[in-house]
Automatic annotation (TrEMBL):
Protein name per UniProt: ferroxidase
SUPFAM superfamilies: Frataxin/Nqo15-like (SSF55387)
Organism, scientific name: Cladophialophora carrionii CBS 160.54
Molecular function per GO: 2 iron, 2 sulfur cluster binding; ferric iron binding; ferrous iron binding; ferroxidase activity; iron chaperone activity
Compartments where found: Mitochondrion
A Gene Ontology biological process term: intracellular iron ion homeostasis
Bias (Polar residues): 21-30
EC identifiers of the protein: 1.16.3.1
Amino acid sequence: MKASRQLLRSAARASRLNRPLTASTAFSTSRLLPATTSRYAVLSPAETPRQAASFSTHTLRHKGLQPDSSDPQPPKPEATHGNGPGAGAAQISDGEYHELADQYLNTLVLALEDVSERNTEGMESEFSAGVLTITHPKHGTYVINKQPPNRQIWLSSPISGPKRFDWVIPSSSQDHKADSTVDGGDDGSTGGKWIYLRDGSSLSELLKSELGVEITPGGGEDAHGGREGPAKSGLNSSP
């Protein structure tokens, strides 16, 4: 009897081991396998480097304003006119420069004295060693002086600031204004003027605008032989 029970138990155990998988067991296994497979597909070595390389190339790419420009160059500033003797200034010798500059400054001194006599504002001027100092009660102090190394006349104005003027003859410079009202120029003969080459303005026009001083062209002879020039010897050669 006891042997029969053991035989039945052994048979039951063998039948449980040999029976097929149940529906729940098969469903559980089929659910886990795709998840494991998709995980390894995302981390595939063949896909990951390609995606990273594409992102890196797009991020480091630079473009210019034009579609065909990948590395645009900065704009180049436009060239400006210089203020040296070779940039529109007339080619004059040292002797010619001193003669023209002295004639102009002496003529300017006479014009300033005339303005001071007719004006009650109290404008004063002092000319010494080639330096002309003008004191205006409203504007301030002007300084005008020769600059022989550059063959220029320099101006320091409390209104328009510092400027350097070159001797310019209309036929040799594009910076000269063709519509100038003074035909003879600052010397009264050649038509030359002391011009600020950066903007084409003349020293005479600036002084007239800021100080009301008008220079008479060709007045250098009176200036050299008058109050600011060499003293006359008492002989008058004029008729």
